[in-house]
Amino acid sequence: MDRNILRSCREDPRRTSTDIQVFVTSPNEPVPSRRTIRRRLQVAGLYGRRPVKKSYAPQYQCPTVKHGGGSEMVWGCFSDTSMGPLKRIQDNDPKHTSGHVANWFRVDLLEWPSQSPDLNPIEHMWEELEQRLKGFRASNANQIFAQLEAAWKSIPMTVVQTLLDSMPRRCQAVIDAKGYPTKY
């Protein structure tokens, strides 16, 4: 049983004692308690599922997304014939437009008003994109962007055509509401 506990931990150092308990349980042996598993790991020099002297080795690190749980701002376009590319962007918030941040991102920022009204079918495309990404998880910004790109490319042109066909109704709704919010 001790070998199985150690093997389970070495296969995936992020396994919890409960996960290890399920992994090592067999019908012929009694189920070890989580406390027993932790004690056996400590005797083997594994504190917190990683060796004390190697705690910063890459195999014991878990990539994470910082600041806001993994949102990614993108720019996208489409026409009645095709889907355009997705590009990473930053909004015009002063903390994002400072010279230091612009140099760090090494991208050109698009200029537009930070509080612009949205009479734009792209907003519905973003909703479509969000629906397609429900349930996906990513551990870093590159994975998020890769998932966004894949979902963007999978949107059928019938969705695009429906949105484009709605433009006359959208414009009339804004005119009728004298610029106030509409159902769109």
Could you walk me through the main structural features you see in this protein, from its secondary elements to its overall organization?
By secondary structure, the chain is mainly alpha-helical. The protein folds into 2 domains: about 1-60, no CATH class; about 75-175, no CATH class. The protein has helices spanning about 1-10, 15-25, 35-45, 95, 100-105, 120-135, 140-155, 155-165, 165-175; strands at about 45, 50, 75-80, 85-90. Helix 2 packs across helix 3 (about 35-45). The longest helix is centred in the last third of the chain and has 13 residues, at about 140-155. The protein is elongated, with a radius of gyration of 25 Å. The model is unreliable at about 65-70 and about 110-115 (pLDDT under 50). Pfam families: DDE_3, HTH_Tnp_Tc3_2. GO terms for molecular function: DNA binding.
Shape: elongated
**Number of structurally distinct domains:** 2
Helix proportion of residues, in percent? 40-55%
The largest β sheet comes out as:
2 strands, antiparallel
Overall pLDDT confidence: 75
Strand content: 5-15%
- Rounded to the nearest angstrom, the radius of gyration is 25 Å
Q: Order of helices and strands, N to C?
A: HHHEEEEHHHHHH
Structural class: mainly alpha
What's the β-strand tally?
4
Number of helices: 9
Unreliable stretches: 65-70, 112-117
Alpha-carbon distance between the termini? 62 Å
Strand order of the largest sheet: 1-2
What is the assembly state of the chains in this entry?
single chain
